[in-house]
Sequence to fold (171 residues):
Amino acid sequence: GKESTAPLKTKSPGADTRALRQELETLHKPKAGAIVKAWKYLGNEDRHIRWAARVALEHQPVAQWQDEALAEEDHQTSLTALCALARHGDKALQSNLITALNRLDWTKLSIPQQAELLRVYQLAFIRMGQPSGKDAAAVEKKLDILFPAPVAALNLELCTLLVYLESPNAA
Fold:
């Protein structure tokens, strides 16, 4: 036949997402402008993009982005930024971090976001140590009314946290 046999120039599915993730991965070192670039993707619907953006943020000096993380109002962006802060922030930030986590409305979070919220609480305690009595009581009060949850995976995490916080209702 007379039809062209030249290869077609098409993008593979996910090529744009893959390219964005790889671009964010170039920021996994201290770099000017990385915070602004990464911040835009902390709330991305693709968890791999969020992960790459979070790691890029973690490679920048915490003092340059901690206030923005504590003040963030978008639920997913806040969860991702607070996760980064729990992983790399100083123990002195723990009370502010817990206050920011407590501001998130459980009923407005999706189930994966609820699980992520519980994980960030855990990271704050694992990485930053035992919270003050006031902070522990505030977290216990917020989580105690959620247990038991309608999802088994959430119950496991809630139970773990409530036992750690020595909630009398955990048993």
User: Anything to note?
Assistant: The CA atoms of residues 118 and 157 lie 7 Å apart. The chain has a mean pLDDT of 96. The longest helix spans residues 111-128.
